[in-house]
Design a protein that fits this description.
alpha/beta; Nucleotidyltransferase, domain 5; six-stranded mixed beta sheet; four-stranded parallel beta sheet
Length: about 725
Amino acid sequence: QEKSSRLSAALFGEDCEISHDQLYELLKYAALGECHNATQPSWCRIYHQSHLAGVVVIVLHEMSQLHFYKFYLQFKHLRKVFQHRFTLTPSGNFLASLYGEGANLKPRNTAQGLTSTSSECVPKSSDLQRDPVIRKYGLKKQGLTSYTLTLEEQKKNDYPIKGSPGCKGYIYTECDQQRTDSSPLFGLDCEMCLTAKGNEVTRVSLVDAEGQCLLNELVKPQGTVVNYRTRFSGITEEMLLPVKTRLPDLQTRLKKMLPRDAVLVGHSLNADLQALEMIHPSVIDTSLLFARNGGRRFKLKFLAKAVLGKEIQCEEKLGHDPAEDARAALELAQFFIEQGPAKVAELNLEMLLRTEKLAEVSQNKAALQPQGCKVQKQLNEPPHLSKPCFLDCLQVTGQKPLLLGRQELGSCGLCQSNLSTSNKQILQRALEDVPLSTFSIIQFSLGPEYIASHLLAGLCEKVRSKLTDLLTIYAGPFEESFCLQSVKKEFGRCGPIQSLTVVTETCQPYVCIQYEVLEAAQLAVESLNGAEVAGSCIKVQRPVTAAMLDCDVLIKELELDVENEGVIYVAGLKKSLTETDLQEEFSRLKGLETLFLPKDLQSGKHRNCCFLKFQKSESAVDALEVINGWTMKGSKLRSRNALASGHLWRWIWQTNHSNGKQGGNILHEKMEQLSDSEQDLRKKVKQLDHHIKKLYRSLQNNTLCVVLFPGAN
């Protein structure tokens, strides 16, 4: 819904089916932009990709379109919020293309590590000139003042600026003495917690040019803490309980400690100064100093290892140490100033990062998939991934993909030992970690007891049976000598008929009509019940079965589905009318956006009905009043609100034409087993829907979110 990053695609009618490659294109471009040979998807466009806050793929393990329609009423949030739905063609293994199962990667320098100086890691002199560091700073060494951010650079990178409207109430350090190349450097780093006010500082460290820690202070946030982010901040509730220091106290101390010509150094220092609500005129930002192509930035952990040979932010430690991070940023700035841009460019950091990531991915390929949610290889289909998988691409570009399921991926693609044994645990971890990752795959599962093949067969039969009942109407009673052709013609005006049979078990004849689209059956019930047809006043009703007791509720919910908003169904069209004829006839309707003329998927011939999509719901309501009773080329039209979107219409057709009929005794046994577990299954699905709701509501604006029902294939 955000204007700055919107997905525009034709989602009507036959365009509702996409391939694995098309979905892969979308996710790759959303996550990588122009990097790594990513291009705009061939079937839709993402505008302002750089404004995307992140991409989240929610995988409902081994659930398929079958589950979505069987538990349509239980997926209350999912169907109300996610406006765009597609049928994913069952070919190949989409999850394998994300996780990298079967990928064959051969990194070129896996043994030598980050500090390698082998010939393949040293750039040629001609390449040095193209290095972003050289392009920005030249080849010669310069003093520290050449590397402080200009006012324009500070504005561009969201630094607090004196006099800026967004910095009202911020404290100015008053360090406004002119800087020289001998001005003192100070490393600064903060750790933040998420509170009701937003990000608030909870720990501050300041180190001097010798690396001595001058300040390492805990701070009591003003707002109520929502998330301590302990895994990253190292802060716990117990640590903050005795703390009395507040932000104003710390601002005063910092102001007194800094000399008038102090230069602050930090990695993405803008975030620290914003959290401190302080303005300082002279800064060196190491995330910008060690520039990369396209404005991307290296992580502090990587730079510390690649440039300084130091390990920081180690996994075994609880959270980051701000004094360690401040010292690392300071030493990086000192290295850059003392060694000069040419030496930094010779390190060939981009190649080192690529080598490191490919080595990690290659060594840990087997651990990439969550245990218990492992994607099955297609039977009779060997792996054929000739390109690096999606997660490989992300890691090579320095991004940190998050994979949560029965286990989670660490920052390097290493499978950690802490297991998530339930969907609730996975959700809790997702709520904490998804905001910190640019690309996340969150995998929920119903559990093996609910996806057994015998239960799925019974579930499929129940859905097929219910769809058949929804498409079927009974009409009558008629006179003994009634004209069957007249009945077929009258009911045919409601939409395409699949079959019509005469019921003879009753004392007077009835007819059983099965339609091809839901709207036709509903239109027949609404418009012909109590009408006079073939000389008899008849009753029109659907079959009365246990599964159909919630029919009215289901019809109402389908009508209110966001996919059907502004869409109406029109029946009674003459088959001789072409799409061009219809476009011309309906062009007088205000706000008409799209016309879709369904075709028989076997013969290719169009039906005697169509769907009209309007720009606004109000226009659709007005059109219904105009069309009902409208005569077009001698044929009287009937219309109502749409019930089945394109993918459902196609799925109904495929379900009705499939040959998956079971033997009577076997099927009866399966249906009994399904009935025993269906109530539990319904509760499970409802819980899943609630988890998706909670996760969705926690996402930042401008996040692309995809929910995947991958099925078994």
